[in-house]
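Weekly structure sync, notes
Attendees: PL (lead), two postdocs, one rotation student
Agenda item 3: pending single-chain targets
PL asked that the sequence for the first pending target be pasted directly into the notes so everyone works from the same version. It is reproduced below exactly as submitted, 393 residues in total.
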Amino acid sequence: MRSLLWVIAIFAFAVGVAMLADANSGYMLVVFPPWRAQVSLNLAILVLLFGFIAAYGLTRVVSRAMDLPGRVGLSRARRRQDKAFRSMRDALQALFEGRFSDSLRQARIAYASGDESPVAALVAARAAHALNDDKSYRQWMARAAEPREGRIAGLLTGAELAIEDGDLASAGKSLQALRDTDHRSTSALRLALDLARAEGRWGDVRETIGQLTSNKAITAEQARPLLRQAHIEDLRALVSRPELQLDHWRKLGKDELADPEFVSQALPLLAAAGQGAVARRVVERLLDANWDSALARKYVLCSGQAEEAGDALAKGERWLVDHPDDAGLLFSLGRQCMAAQIWGKAQSYLEHSQRLQPSADVRLALGDLMAALGRGAEAAVHYRDAARLAIVV
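Predicted structure, written out during the meeting:
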């Protein structure tokens, strides 16, 4: 229907033009001395109209011909950009799939095709690093750092890969350069945490964990084992300085002292510095609240001396009423009785623990007990069994 209306409109227009031309009897006189020309006004209008159309068409042809080199250049640039995009996509996919040789090759193509962005260089650097091609890795890292916008990404990547390689000095320089640029990001904090752990700077580890937690970059559950390790390493470093170790223990928060795993790891370190007794109340509260056989096994480390040792032994025997077949508690009581020279009870507890759960430390304790009683042959048997169990474990 619409096409029909257009046809009718065109014919109507043509008829109108024809009627107008027929009614127009005017003429136009063109004088160019010594020549004169008289033409119909209708013809003059047609000549002018077709002349304008011809001039416009010629102008467009000339214009497009002059623009042709630029259009060809744009077309080539677009093809290079498409090629670089496809190569970059393939390089990333190969990198994530572990096809590092393919990733390096595609990243080179992307970079050579005009995508000289730091992203292509960093992908190539990661692939070269995974291939242990140190020369190529350094070349691509240098290219990634050339443009200003690639400096941050290059420093982060360099720090991460340096930590993987154990090159802590280079990682430290990269992270310091990031701090100098006032760059603050979760990725930088995580790398700072990894570096601090690798270098054993446990105070910095705790501080960085606090920042990550406050930024909600890690949860409290994720932070707990890291903080536990930091405190344990601090206690380990202070074994030879009992006063400082005791001061550190007393500054621990409620969360750490309520963690059975942390207390269990801390007890041997405190005992090595002669400070085991300071943890006794903490251990007793934990065991009263939630029984833990592994922690009960180490209760002997905090039993103390003299009257404290007697109180600890009495406490352990009260627990034994509720946990008569707990191998860990029986081992601890056996050791406590040995310290108190209650030889009969010590042997009974240790042999019961060995029957329930054979282990090298129980055999070793029985060997020490037999040696203290002057029964060398039996002690030798227990020592051999302890060695065998230790090797098997």
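Discussion points:
- Residues 41-96 form the longest helix (56 residues).
- Residues 295-393 form a domain with the Serine Threonine Protein Phosphatase 5, Tetratricopeptide repeat fold (CATH 1.25.40.10).
Action: rotation student to compare against the earlier draft before next sync.
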